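Q: My labmate handed me this sequence with no annotations at all. I'd like to see what the chain might look like in three dimensions before we decide whether it's worth expressing. Could you predict it?
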Amino acid sequence: MKKVLAIFLCAVMLFSFACVFAFAEGAETVTVTFVNDDGTTVIQSVEVEKGKVPVGPPAPSKPRQDGDPEWEFSGWQAPDGSIYYSNTLPAANSDTIYVATYKKIHDNEAEGNITIMSFLASIFERLNKIFDQLKTYYNELADSVQKLLG
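A: Here is what I predict for the chain of 150 residues:
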């Protein structure tokens, strides 16, 4: 009976150590934080098991004021400079901060400058045509006057 009890206690102890070890292994987490391009506005912060792939938030939009260019989200920049989309993030092995990156898709000021330049170019083109026509008429007039006088 003592042998059975000793074996039972050893089995319970082994099972207890296995549970504690498994719990301790699975409990290690890291924090993955997603911030806007200003580096301070936290969009989302998640805790994930070390070695697991975090799920990033949906693509954020960049706030803008009247006249500011329009921007499109282009990915999350890792500390090493790599850019990832929300569904392509690497496994998290340590606390990590990802910074939102954007690309300019529409610039009201630049578009306005292009519009003005196009307008001015069309005016100069029209003026050149008018001057060419005037030059032709002047030459024809000069020829006619010369024939009359001479």
